[in-house]
Structures are given as structure tokens and as C-alpha cells.
Here is the input.
Amino acid sequence: MEISQSLVCPCNNKLYKTAATFKAHQSSNIHIVWEYPQKIKDLEIRATRVENENGHLRRLNILLMEKIQSLEKTCP
Ligand SMILES: [Zn+2]
Here is the structure.
């Protein structure tokens, strides 16, 4: 029964008897339209992570530049 559970699509809660029919459904317009908002949400989450990482790297860069400048001042 475990295998058939994985052939239930969450977009319509319909049980697909074979992997082939399930796959065919997944490439249908009805499924793609259902999936679209979830994909956008995933992309937004990934974009936020990248923005956060970018901000962290920018702060780190400023910190390192300040350290380099202070070292340059102390070296003859
Ligand atoms: Zn579906």
C-alpha cells in the first residue's frame, strides 16, 4: 500500500494506478497550474536566503577592508 500512497497527487487527491499515469498527470496543465504558486513560494524563499547571504558577505567584506586599512596604517 505504501507504493500506491505515493501515487496520490496532492493537487486533486486522486489515486493513480501506475507510475506512468501519475507521471502523465504531473505533466498535465491542471497539475502544472496547481504547482505554480508553490514553485513561486520556493523561489521567494531561495531568493530571501541568497539576499541574506549577500548581506552577510557585504558586512564581512566591510569588516575585512577595515582590518586591512588599520593594518596598513600600523605597518611602516
Ligand atoms: Zn497533480
Summary: The beta strands are 8-9, 14-15. Residues 2-74 form one domain. The chain has one domain: 2-74. Residues 9, 11-12, 25-26, 31, 34 surround zinc ion (CB under 6 Å).
